[in-house]
Design brief:
By secondary structure, the protein is an alpha+beta fold. Among the domains are: 45-85 and 100-141, no CATH class; 214-391, no CATH class. The chain contains 10 helices and 12 strands. It has helices at 2-17, 20-25, 28-39, 125-139, 143-155, 157-181, 223-241, 252-266, 307-321, 340-350, and strands at residues 45-53, 57-64, 70-85, 106-108, 113-120, 270-278, 281-289, 295-303, 328-335, 357-365, 368-375, 378-391. The strands form 2 sheets. A 7-stranded mixed β-sheet has the order 6-7-8-9-12-11-10, sandwiched between helices. A hairpin with a 4-residue loop joins strand 4 (106-108) and strand 5 (113-120). Helix 1 packs across helix 6. The longest helix has 25 residues, at 157-181.
């Protein structure tokens, strides 16, 4: 497909722009890994449960009745939006095979929102649902075939990049051999580069396995990854506050699944699960090391029901779910109260009263607070605890 050819041409241009000395002296595998990660394409996934519908714009439209007479009719124009994951450029690609069905969509690649508009002529819920469903089918009719094309594309992605790189490297090696044969001296004063560029990856590095002590011979989550997990949860929660359709009518499990969806697709080498048995109960969210199932991160999700229930939620997390090896956790609070600022003040006031509390370590955001606690069965074993609250007040 044309998109595939153009995409590979972009990668080839980056290789060429690196220059001869760089190509000859860079670590081959590191550079190929860098290019593969930088240009990797994720298939499109429309998150249907994230649907938001705007208030309609009411307008007038000329219509013609069965007798050929013109008249003016009210119309109601709706905009429907969905979050999506994947490479936004794929929306502009025509897959093979292609379904001859189309509908105009708007893609915001910065916020990963895709939307379309449609109109109805009556204030009729059935007409609304049927028209929206038909427009959705037309707008995204080719997503399945497109993603199948992407699967075929990425199956040989790394090998193709390797071939392109080696083609340039071998060309430069042949050139140097030729220069040597005819006694042409190359410039040896040019600065050499031996390492691949560092790419700020969306995927955080694998958990580390520390050595030296028996108790830490299991994988542990790096501080970098813990910080990233908390940022993902916090940013997602703040985004959900602006999109009531993502939480209205949902219980703790329904809201939890919104966070779980993002976490389970973000990190390589881990699995994200909900309602998973750990120690003597079911924890809401657990990130595990994929190779051996060791816990990396545990979170408990609760609706806010006052200070007393909040402290009980912390006790439940520590008393029922945490083992001696768990050291990075979070409590995620869903607040329906109108006075959100009073709840945040209560969190800061009441948390030090918990019997396992050790110290406060500051704030990651207006409603995200960092603490150190200790395990109930071992005062010397410290646990990092992030308390996050989100204001889900729409009914």
């Amino acid at each position: 497909m044309e998109f595939q050819q153009n995409y590979y041409q972009t990668i080839k241009q980056e290789i060429l722009s690196s220059g001869k000395e760089y190509i000859l002296k860079v670590d081959e595998n590191e550079y190929i890994e860098y290019l593969t990660e930088k240009y990797k394409i994720e298939p499109i996934n429309i998150i249907y449960d994230s649907e938001t519908v705007s208030e309609p714009v009411v307008d007038k439209e000329h219509r013609r009745d069965m007798f050929g007479r013109d008249y003016m009719s009210d119309i109601y124009i709706f905009a429907v939006s969905y979050q999506f994951t994947g490479h936004s450029g794929l929306f502009r690609v025509q897959p093979n095979p292609y379904i001859w069905s189309s509908y105009e969509i708007d893609v915001n690649s910065r916020s990963n929102i895709v939307s379309f508009r449609f109109k109805i002529y009556n204030q009729d819920p059935n007409e609304f649902r049927q028209t929206k469903s038909q427009c959705y089918s037309n707008a995204f009719a080719n997503i399945y075939n497109l993603n199948e094309n992407v699967k075929g594309f990425i199956s040989s992605f790394e090998q193709t990049i390797r071939s392109m790189f080696l083609q340039e490297k071998n060309k430069y090696k042949s050139e140097n051999n030729f220069f040597a044969a005819i006694n042409v001296k190359t410039n040896t004063n040019t600065q050499s580069i031996f390492t691949a560029p560092t790419l700020k990856k969306k995927i955080i590095s694998h958990p580390e396995v520390k050595k030296g002590k028996e108790f830490s011979s299991v994988p542990t989550m790096s501080q970098e990854m813990y910080n990233d997990v908390l940022k993902v949860i916090y940013d997602s929660g703040k985004s959900m506050e602006k999109k009531p359709a993502l939480y209205i009518g949902k219980d703790e499990e329904g809201i939890r699944d919104q966070f779980l969806f993002i976490l389970e697709t973000r990190y390589e080498g881990t699995t994200a699960t909900g309602e998973t048995f750990n120690r003597s109960g079911k924890a809401d969210i657990i990130l595990k090391f994929a190779e051996d199932g060791s816990n990396l991160f545990i979170a408990e999700c609760k609706f806010w029901h006052g200070q007393g229930e909040y402290l009980k939620a912390i006790s439940q997390l520590f008393d029922r779910y945490l083992t001696w090896r768990d050291s990075k956790v979070a409590v995620i609070l869903f607040v329906e109260n109108s006075y959100f600022s009073l709840v945040l003040e209560a969190i800061k006031t009441e948390t030090p009263n918990h019997p396992y509390f050790v110290s406060a370590k500051g704030e990651r955001g207006e409603s995200s607070f960092t603490y150190i606690f200790h395990l109930p069965q071992d005062n010397e074993k410290k646990v990092q605890v992030e308390i996050m609250a989100f204001h889900f007040d729409k009914k």
